[in-house]
Design brief:
The chain is mostly helical. About 75% of the residues lie in helices and about 0% in strands. It has 9 helices and no strands. Helix 4 packs antiparallel against helix 5. The longest helix has about 35 residues. This is Integral membrane protein. It comes from Paenibacillus silagei. Keywords: Membrane, Transmembrane, Transmembrane helix.
């Protein structure tokens, strides 16, 4: 193609920026994506994800049997389950705040339920540990947490369903699912406790029933504070919106 000004003919009709030897933008993006996939940390994350998904499906279909057979090697998977439980609880309340059009949603609608759920799970683990220590039972702490996290797998599924049903405005049903997910915290506590030989210390000043009851009451109080404080925050936000002109 000739240059209309009489100069040297164009060798690249696409323009000077697209030289034949230069990689196209799409090729650059593709190469960067391939390099990212080859990154060691990304590959490790993919391996952890695949391992957790296999663990999750097994525990979801047979939670009690899996809990009885699970080795300490799945300790990290149980921690991931507990983390997902706290995160999904926070996402549920954040979604609720958004649907209710509550102002200042991030603090009371996400951070507070996230922290309180994490504290509630930590208290559940600590209370279970305390009861077993009081009972003078020999146990592996990591195995105890692994068992409790395995039994929490159904709670994760319930919370996902709760968020989905909340998105389609099925408020009562989604609330029921959240309550059931919290119930699994107590189920995991007590089921894990009764995997150990309790009340083997002979005559003592306090019966086994009372430490177990105290552990459940303390954990229940944390989740009670979670629900009441989040509802109070939502009510305050809605009230503040109503006074705006």
């Amino acid at each position: 193609m000739n240059n209309p000004e009489g100069g040297t003919p164009f060798t690249n009709p696409e323009g000077p920026n697209n030289q034949p030897g230069q990689p196209q933008p799409q090729r650059k993006v593709s190469e960067q994506f391939n390099n990212l996939l080859k990154d060691e940390r990304v590959q490790q994350a993919q391996a952890v994800g695949k391992q957790y998904w296999s663990f999750y499906l097994r525990a979801l279909t047979r939670p009690y049997s899996t809990m009885r057979e699970i080795p300490v090697a799945h300790f990290m998977n149980s921690l991931i389950t507990m983390g997902l439980t706290a995160l999904l609880t926070a996402l549920y309340f954040l979604t609720l705040f958004i649907k209710w059009d509550v102002s200042a949603i991030f603090g009371p609608g996400f951070l507070k339920p996230l922290l309180l759920t994490a504290v509630g799970l930590a208290v559940a683990c600590g209370a279970t540990y305390a009861v077993l220590r009081l009972e003078k039972v020999s146990f592996d702490f990591k195995l105890l947490i692994t068992r409790m996290g395995t039994l929490l797998v159904p709670a994760v599924a319930l919370l996902v369903l709760a968020i989905l049903t909340l998105l389609v405005s099925l408020y009562s049903f989604s609330t029921t699912l959240v309550a059931l997910s919290f119930l699994f915290v107590f189920i995991s506590m007590n089921t894990a406790l009764f995997q150990y030989p309790l009340n083997t210390g002979g005559s003592r000043g306090i019966d086994t029933l009372y430490p177990i009851a105290i552990a459940n009451i303390v954990t229940g109080y944390i989740f009670y504070k979670l629900i009441t404080s989040v509802i109070a925050g939502a009510a305050f936000g809605m009230l503040s919106n109503s006074f705006k002109f």
